[in-house]
C-alpha cells in the first residue's frame, strides 16, 4: 500500500524573541493564507514554541536558536527540502544563506538580487508585510490579534507592571516603577509585578520599594500559557519596550509602554487608542546598550502614573487608524 504523500511545506525563519514573534504575526498570517495547501513551519527558539502555536498562524515549529540575535543553523531540518523558504529574520546574507543551504524550491528573502529593498525606517510590522507584498502575498500589518487563552488568569483584572527588559537601555529605573505602583495602589487598583527569567532580584526590589505584598509578586518567569492569560485578563499593562508590551497588543489589553532608544514609530504599538507609547523625541540610541537610554530617563514618574490612570479610565473601544503616540516634553 502506497503511503500518502506529505503535504508541501513552507519554512519561515524568525528565530528571535517574543516581541519579534508577535510583531511578525501579521506577516505569518499572510503566509498562512497564501499557501493554504502547505504545512507552515516556523523556525524559532524552542522556548517560544508554545507562544508560536498559540498565534494560530503556523502549523508546526522547528527548533532553531543562536546567541543574541545571530542566525541559527538550520542543517537539522528533517526530510526533503522545503517547497518554500521565507526569511523573516533579517536583511543580510546570513539568514538568506541559512535557508538557501536547505535547497528550497523557492526562496523569498530581502538579500536576493530580485528581493525588495530594505525599508530601514519602517515599522517592524509594516516592513515584513511590505516584503511579502513584493512577492505577491497580501498581509495586513494590523492583523495582529491572537486567540484568547483558555488558561485562567492568576490575577484577573489586575494592573500588570513589568519593570524588566532585555537590555539596560530599555529598562526604566526600578525606583520609578515602584513610585508608580504606589500611586496605582493608593488609587485603589490591584497591582501585580512580573519579571522574566533572571529578573527576580529586580522584581523583588521594586516590590519592596513599593510596599507590594508578596501575593502580588510573580517571579521566576511565568510559563507562557499563564503569562498570556495574565495579560489577556489584565486591566492595564505597564512596561518598557519588551515582549510583554507586544503581548498586551496581541490581546487588546490597554497598555502604557515606555520608549527610549528607539522611537515607537518604529517599534511601538499599533495606532489604537488603548495602547499609549510614552517617548521623549531625540536622536536614536542603542536599543541593546547596557545602561538606561537618556530619553528613557527623561520620562518622569508623575507623567507615567498619570498616563496609567488615564488608560484605566478610558472605555475599551478601538479607533482603527488613529495614531496615539504621546511625545512628552
From TrEMBL:
Q: Which top-rank group of organisms is this from?
A: Bacteria
Q: For this UniProt entry, what's an example GO CC term?
A: cytosol
Look up the signal peptide feature and give its range: none
GO MF annotation, one: ADP-heptose-lipopolysaccharide heptosyltransferase activity
Q: Note whether Glycosyltransferase occurs among the keywords.
A: yes
Q: Which InterPro entries match?
A: Glyco_trans_9, LPS_LOS_Heptosyltrfase
Among Gene3D superfamilies, the record links this protein to: Glycogen Phosphorylase B (3.40.50.2000)
One of the GO BP terms on file? lipopolysaccharide core region biosynthetic process
Keywords, comma-separated and alphabetical: Glycosyltransferase, Transferase
Q: Which CDD domains match?
A: GT9_LPS_heptosyltransferase
UniProt-recorded name of the protein: Transferase
Native organism:
Streptomyces collinus (strain DSM 40733 / Tue 365)
Amino acid at each position: 500500500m502506497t503511503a500518502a504523500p506529505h503535504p508541501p511545506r513552507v519554512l519561515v525563519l524568525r528565530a528571535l524573541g517574543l516581541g519579534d514573534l508577535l510583531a511578525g504575526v501579521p506577516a505569518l498570517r499572510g503566509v498562512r493564507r497564501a499557501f493554504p495547501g502547505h504545512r507552515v513551519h516556523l523556525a524559532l527558539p524552542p522556548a517560544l514554541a508554545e507562544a508560536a502555536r498559540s498565534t494560530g498562524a503556523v502549523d508546526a515549529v522547528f527548533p532553531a536558536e543562536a546567541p543574541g540575535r545571530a542566525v541559527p543553523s538550520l542543517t537539522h531540518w528533517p526530510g526533503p527540502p522545503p517547497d518554500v523558504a521565507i526569511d523573516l529574520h533579517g536583511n543580510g546574507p546570513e539568514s538568506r544563506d541559512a535557508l538557501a543551504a536547505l535547497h528550497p524550491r523557492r526562496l523569498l528573502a530581502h538579500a536576493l538580487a530580485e528581493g525588495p529593498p530594505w525599508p530601514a525606517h519602517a515599522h517592524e510590522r509594516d516592513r515584513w508585510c511590505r516584503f511579502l507584498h513584493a512577492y505577491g502575498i497580501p498581509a495586513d500589518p494590523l492583523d495582529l490579534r491572537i486567540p484568547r487563552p483558555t488558561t485562567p488568569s492568576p490575577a484577573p483584572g489586575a494592573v500588570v507592571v513589568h519593570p524588566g527588559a532585555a537590555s539596560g537601555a530599555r529598562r526604566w529605573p526600578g525606583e520609578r516603577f515602584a513610585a508608580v505602583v504606589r500611586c496605582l495602589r493608593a488609587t485603589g487598583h490591584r497591582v501585580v509585578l512580573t519579571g522574566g527569567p533572571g529578573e527576580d532580584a529586580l522584581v523583588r526590589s521594586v516590590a519592596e520599594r513599593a510596599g507590594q505584598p508578596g501575593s502580588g509578586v510573580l517571579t521566576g518567569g511565568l510559563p507562557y500559557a499563564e503569562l498570556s492569560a495574565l495579560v489577556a485578563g489584565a486591566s492595564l499593562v505597564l512596561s518598557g519596550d519588551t515582549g510583554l508590551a507586544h503581548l498586551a497588543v496581541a490581546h487588546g489589553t490597554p497598555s502604557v509602554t515606555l520608549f527610549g532608544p528607539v522611537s515607537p514609530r518604529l517599534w511601538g504599538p499599533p495606532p489604537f487608542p488603548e495602547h499609549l507609547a510614552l517617548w521623549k523625541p531625540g536622536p536614536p540610541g542603542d536599543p541593546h546598550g547596557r545602561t538606561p537610554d537618556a530619553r528613557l530617563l527623561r520620562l518622569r514618574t508623575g507623567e507615567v502614573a498619570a498616563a496609567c490612570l488615564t488608560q484605566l479610565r478610558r472605555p475599551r473601544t478601538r479607533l482603527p487608524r488613529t495614531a496615539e503616540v504621546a511625545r512628552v516634553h
